[in-house]
Amino acid sequence: MTKRAYFIIATDTGVGKTFIACGLAKAFRSMGLSVGVMKPFESGCGVRNGALVPADALALIKAASSTDPLDLVNPYRFRAALAPNIAARLERKKINLEKIKKAFKMIADGYDVTLVEGAGGILSPITNAMSNADLALLMGLPVIIVVPSRLGAINQALLAIEAARTRGLEVSAVVLNRLPQMGHRGSDNSLRYNRGEIKHIGGVEVVEVG
Fold first, then answer.
1. What is the residue range of 65's domain?
2. According to the model, what pLDDT value does residue 186 have?
3. Does residue 69 fall inside a structural domain?
4. pLDDT (mean) for 42-57
5. CATH code of the domain containing 131
6. Chain segment 21-38, per-residue pLDDT in tens
């Protein structure tokens, strides 16, 4: 079969990218496919025994049953909970995008499907000159956009879709995350309309979870 890979990004930080990426990894595995995962950048890492611990990358590895080394899956990790370019500057680390491309190729060559999770929102900077969207384009990957399903989701989704397409990115799907922590579900009337409006106006497949 033809190998596939996707870049998972969101409209904002903390809206469930890792949860969705892990769910996709498990879904692909249930189809009998091998799954590789990558988290090029992880900020806000905890510290254990003097080493930074990338919780999201570890969750992805577990969901995919990956045997790849952590440093390959997650080449860059930072203690500061900031955009990668700012965290790297504060922690005096240099980001090499060729290192990320090489790591991705090593991972993708060994699996049927590879899932790459970005850091923050679609236009969050990873270097002083590049955003997550630019990284997805550099890696040649279509994007899956995670959007919290709440009032404002339509605008956020359409802005992200436009940002992706104007940069030449293919939008494979939008995932609406309806987890309880995303807001007051019972009183938010937008929940019944978000999926249909985003699909119709954005011209994209929309999946709702939660």
1. 4-183+193-209
2. 58
3. yes
4. 97
5. 3.40.50.300
6. 999 999 999 999 999 999
What's the pLDDT score for residue 5? Answer: 98
Residue 51 clears pLDDT 90, i.e. is over it: yes
Positions annotated as catalytic residues are 39
pTM of the model: 0.94
Number of separate domains in the chain? 1
Q: Is residue 188 part of a domain?
A: no
Transcribe the chain into DSSP letters.
---EEEEEEESSSSSSHHHHHHHHHHHHHHTT--EEEE-SEE-S-EEETTEEE-HHHHHHHHHHT--S-HHHH-SEE-SSSS-HHHHHHHTT----HHHHHHHHHHHHTT-SEEEEEEEEETT-BSSSS-BHHHHHHHHT--EEEEEE-STTHHHHHHHHHHHHHHTT--EEEEEEE--GGGS-GGG-GGGGTHHHHHHHHHTS-EEEE-
